[in-house]
Design brief:
The chain is mainly alpha-helical and 237 residues long. It has eight helices and no strands.
Length: 237
């Protein structure tokens, strides 16, 4: 985690700005009575392929947007704070690949909303921590999983009017992003105590050189015994 380079307040501000854009779009739609549902993604409609880029920024209702707001705020903040070098790569990968997956394989419907981004970022945070295994990524993953671990189940069909396809392909894209960008951010420096940095003393602090003296005495005794044995042998002969 590049805490020295990216502050938590900046990460929260980043996620607030991202989510504010979605609320401005929805508010404008309601205030000016404009229907933006045409920006949603319809599978296998060639003329609608460009909607891969617009579908995540429009929502069917205020409730739909509200349900995506809090997880988007927190998960984007985690991503921005923990992975400053790869955050835009992850968002871009999830955004485009989840849309392509929906366009190719989803059922016939109008798919829209930022839930695919939510699932993609969550699965990135989860999978990348398994590869990196440093304290920072594990801590971020544990917080994200504690709050939104249920996303691991919403990638499967549950309710007819919910685009589980965007959830599923968001998760696939997030996993792929973790494989691609797991080394983009440097590993955090492991802090060590002063006593860990000190060079080890070759001499035992208690015994000191006593072991050398003991070894010398033992060698002298063995030599004396050998001489005595030789004198006995000569006497016998």
């Amino acid at each position: 985690m590049q805490a020295s380079k990216v502050s938590l307040s900046r990460s929260v501000l980043f996620s607030l700005l991202m989510v504010s854009v979605l609320w401005v779009i929805k508010s404008s739609e309601l205030m000016f009575h404009v229907d933006l549902s045409g920006l949603g993604l319809q599978p296998l409609v060639v003329s609608d392929l460009w909607s891969i880029f617009t579908a995540p920024i429009v929502h069917a209702s205020l409730e739909h947007l509200f349900n995506n707001t809090l997880p988007l705020l927190l998960l984007l903040a985690f991503l921005h704070y923990g992975y400053p070098n790869s955050r835009w790569k992850v968002i871009g990968t999830v955004w485009v690949l989840s849309g392509i997956g929906v366009w190719l394989f989803a059922r016939e419907a109008n798919h829209l909303g930022a839930s695919g981004i939510n699932h993609g970022v969550f699965f990135f945070l989860f999978v990348v921590s398994l590869f990196r295994r440093d304290k920072s990524s594990i801590a971020i993953m544990m917080i994200a999983f504690f709050m939104y671990g249920g996303m691991t189940m919403t990638i499967f069909p549950r309710e007819e009017h919910i685009s589980f396809e965007y959830h599923f392909f968001g998760a696939v894209a997030g996993t792929l992003a973790a494989l691609l960008w797991r080394h983009a951010d440097p590993m955090p420096e492991v802090k060590r105590y002063d006593w860990e940095r000190e060079e080890p003393d070759d001499d035992d602090p208690v015994i000191g050189d006593e072991w050398q003296l003991s070894e010398h005495q033992s060698s002298w005794r063995d030599s004396e015994r050998h001489c005595q044995t030789e004198r006995v042998d000569r006497t016998l002969h």
